[in-house]
Amino acid sequence: MGYFLFIDESGQDHKESPYEVLAGVAIKDEDLWKLVQEIHDAEIAHFGRRYSDGKREVKARSVIKRKAFTHAAYDPIILPHEVPNLAKECLDNGQINNSRRHQKALALAKIAYVSDVFAICERYRCKIFASIVEPDAPPTQSGGLRKDYGYLFERFFRFLEDETTESGYPQQGVLVFDELEKTKSHILIEQAHKYFKDTATGRLRASLVIPEPFFVHSDLTTGVQIADLAAYCIAWGLRFGAMDKPVRAELKPYVEKIFKLRHRAIRNMMGNPNFVIWSIAYIRDLRTTPEKLAEELVQE
User: DSSP readout, 123-140?
Assistant: First the structure.
């Protein structure tokens, strides 16, 4: 018994995204196939077919980019029951079926589909985890596991602890990543192994989080596609604390759903018996504590 944590990222190319986001969605193993089937059904209900049939992939940067909301505001009146057929025609042959009605229908289908995805996740009691990093955050030179990964694993571990306590049985966690370029995948695996085997904190968390990550193709894995949608919405639409980058207001309904999917762990930390640890964390500095102390000494 346990959970899969499907993980993807947004903004790591440092091009347009206001923040780097590493996001994961935790899905209970016994619910996974039922959830996947419901999401596939939602695709057909909104698009009249599977959007991801053929070479097309459900990626946030194409499904809910700004243009989708611009097209959704076009003038032609489209009744709800007309949307799936018009969207299907557009997907089947966009060169011919490219009228403003088709474009609006496809945009409406995309917007509604993403909303349904998060609603389905809420129904199955999934949890969203994320590390949000400032694009100019000072990097670590330690060569170890990056802080955003460490924060993500730590919060997943807290969730598994709580689920273990509630169920009375150990809840194991499996890490599933979108496949990276092979060299980067090897580096991540090596860093994860060192973290879970060579550090006291990592060894503790390995009691519930299996230290061997799995890598899958995102276009074939619904869980990673959900993580991609979450990472994109968080990068462009979620703001709290010191986060001051521009925000896309049209993503607010998705962000509200993501907030409902956070996990809240309460632990005795720093003298506070009710210290709250949310599953979404904001990180301004990727350096380790020794690195920051060394930098401060140099400045003095």
Answer: HTT-EEEEEEE-TTPPPP
In the chain, the percentage of residues whose pLDDT exceeds 70 is: 95
Phi (first) and psi of residue 186, to 5 degrees: -65, -40
How many of the other CB atoms lie within 10 Å of CB of 137?
16
Q: What pLDDT score does 281 carry? A: 96
Calpha distance 66→213 (Å, rounded): 34
Contact 58, 51 (CB under 8 A): yes
Contact 8, 58 (CB under 8 A): no
> Confidence class of residue 164 from pLDDT cuts 50, 70 and 90?
very high
- pLDDT for residue 120: 98
In angstroms, the CA 81 to CA 87 distance is 11
Does the pLDDT value for residue 179 go beyond 70? Answer: yes
Q: Which residue in 213, 235, 217 sits closest to 225, CA to CA?
A: 217
Least confident of 25-39, 118-132, 188-202, 220-234: 188-202
Angle at 143 between CA 299 and CA 134, to 5 degrees: 65
Asked if 123 contacts 27 with a C-beta cutoff of 8 angstroms, the reply is no
3-state secondary structure 232-250: HHHHHHCCCCCCCCCCCHH
Q: Show me where the domains of the chain are located.
A: 2-299
Say whether 26 sits in a helix, a strand or coil: strand
